[in-house]
Design goal:
- It contains 24 helices and two strands.
- It has about 500 residues and is mainly α.
- A two-stranded antiparallel sheet has the order 1-2.
- Helix 2 (about 15-35) packs across helix 17 (about 350-375).
- The radius of gyration is 23 Å and the shape is globular.
- Residues about 230-235 have low confidence and may be disordered.
Length: about 500
């Protein structure tokens, strides 16, 4: 009963005119940004953080979350129309979506993607509502040793967020940890790595770094590539699937939504892995699995349902444990902290209006997505043809103005420019920005909880091993770190055994 009461209060919050307006704004901005190749949801959320700083915390997080899951659908437009995923989570959609467009079924592909996103997003919102409070109640008994173990576990996901070389992801994580130490010591109050610059006494602010790494760096990449998308001209008719299409799509939607939700909860997996897993699952269980890749609705419904559900699933560890599961939730985590809200076990009890307003807004946002994206598909396709000379000045102006408005300090503008330049060159050499962001957010939390634990134990590290929960979490973190090395040892041992002529010798 408490669940329904809390959800009812959340709907009262989410349905207020201001929150409803910003949810609609977030969904539309997310769809437009998701449709522009090169600008992903994390970049869009980062660019909107300064706007959120001027709003009430509940309104701000509703807008940012709407931008997140709106962007997950926006990438569908380019995937279907021009065979270019607007975001990595839409890669699997190109396999069948573009083939459907070539057969004159672009409207049907976009329609089934919209319905699949709505159904799976609603499923995921229900699961979020049910799973988050018990998880938070379990975690509320945590002390500094448990928080240290949990945040350290979060840092072990750095390599998973890289999406490529684990070494490069680890290097970026170390850089983020170093940046997080700049400023005043949280316990003693001494200055660290400020080099006499008073602007660094409070550390390097999270927002300018994120705007530079995710926003300006992506714009610089678009300018450098000088690519202009030319969508094939198709008639967008038949947006609503018929009974036969729905019969084929309903199974993939449910399966994709389930895979996406639980995949999104795993740190580092996100929508990309979830959508690929959902597509692969259809290759195993779908009745028309042999036709996958030729342009059938199952190949669009499954990955689109998965990536939308993954956006909601990734919210659970971020909201209840303070551990972001993707680059975008890492940005959202920093945004919540910037707005004075501490994500973690106490968030539901201390900020129920924010949590339940956010949950209710996800139901509303999915309805808004369904209502607005079908009739506005032609308009969003027009956005694909924006010239870089038109798009770039707008984005750069918003980014720099937003960074300046945070503290009315030109130093933050300088940080944005430097971070953007560094982010562009890091991208050229394959160094991911997400691990740096995660390390910047979690690094100070790891340091503070460790030092508080040592104060509790008079300087003894054994306090981390004496408490069952911290011991279990640290053991899990150690296994995650050791798993690649153990896997490599096992593989080499098998290879040596297979190469040993004595193994294959016949008696």
């Amino acid at each position: 009963m408490d669940l329904l009461t809390n959800l009812g209060s959340g709907f009262l919050t989410a349905l207020s005119p201001v929150n409803l307006m910003f949810a609609l704004l977030g969904v539309m901005l997310g769809m437009v940004v998701g449709a522009l190749p090169g600008i992903n949801p994390s970049g869009a959320v980062a660019l909107l953080l300064p706007v959120g700083a001027t709003l009430e915390p509940t309104t701000a997080i509703i807008m940012l979350a709407a931008t997140y899951y709106g962007g997950m659908y926006g990438g569908t437009l380019t995937s279907v129309m021009v065979n270019i995923p607007g975001d990595s989570s839409s890669v699997a959609t190109t396999f069948d979506g573009y083939k459907m467009a070539l057969k004159g079924q672009a409207g049907k592909a976009l329609g089934i993607a919209a319905i699949g996103s709505f159904v799976a997003g609603t499923m995921a919102a229900v699961m979020l509502m049910v799973a988050a409070p018990p998880l938070a109640d379990w975690a509320v008994r945590f002390g500094p040793p448990e928080f240290f173990a949990l945040t350290l576990l979060g840092l072990t996901t750095l390599t998973a967020l890289g999406g490529g070389s684990k070494l490069k992801a680890a290097v970026m994580g170390v850089l983020g940890l170093l940046i997080g130490t700049i400023g005043l010591d949280p316990i003693l109050g001494d200055s660290r790595f400020t080099f006499g610059n008073i602007n660094l006494l409070n550390g390097i602010d999270f927002l300018p770094i994120v705007i530079g790494l995710f926003g300006l760096a992506e714009i610089a990449n678009i300018l450098a590539n000088r690519t202009r998308v030319e969508p094939v001209r198709y008639k967008l008719k038949g947006l609503l699937p018929d009974r036969e299409d729905w019969r084929h799509a309903r199974g993939p939607i449910v399966r994709g939504g389930t895979v996406g939700f639980f995949g999104g909860m795993l740190p580092g997996s996100g929508g990309t892995l979830s959508s690929l897993l959902a597509y692969a699952l259809e290759g195993r269980v779908a009745k028309r699995r042999k036709q996958l890749g030729t342009g059938i609705v199952e190949g669009v419904a499954a990955p689109e349902s998965a990536n939308n559900a993954a956006a909601t699933g990734a919210m659970i560890p971020m909201l209840t444990l303070g551990i972001p599961g993707s680059a975008t939730t890492a940005v959202l985590l920093g945004g919540l902290m910037m707005y004075g809200i501490q994500p973690g076990p106490l968030m539901i009890n201390e900020n129920p209006d924010v949590f339940w307003g956010l949950v209710a807004s996800m139901y509303i946002g999915n309805i808004l997505l369904l209502i607005i994206n079908l009739p506005m598909v032609p308009l969003f396709v027009k956005a694909l043809q924006l010239r870089p000379t038109t798009l770039v000045p707008i984005v750069i102006g918003v980014a720099l103005a937003g960074a300046y408005s945070l503290r009315n300090n030109l130093f933050d503008v300088l940080v944005v420019i430097i971070a953007g330049a560094i982010g562009y060159f890091l991208r050229q050499f394959g160094y991911p920005a997400a691990p740096l962001v995660l390390a910047m957010v979690l690094g100070p939390m790891v340091e503070q909880s460790l030092r508080q634990s040592l104060q509790m134990s008079q300087g003894s590290l054994f306090i981390l091993l004496e408490r069952p929960v911290s011991l279990a979490v640290l053991t899990l973190a150690a296994l995650i770190i050791a798993a690649p090395f153990l896997g490599g040892l096992i593989t080499r041992a098998r290879n040596r055994r297979g190469a040993d002529p004595r193994v294959d010798a016949t008696p």
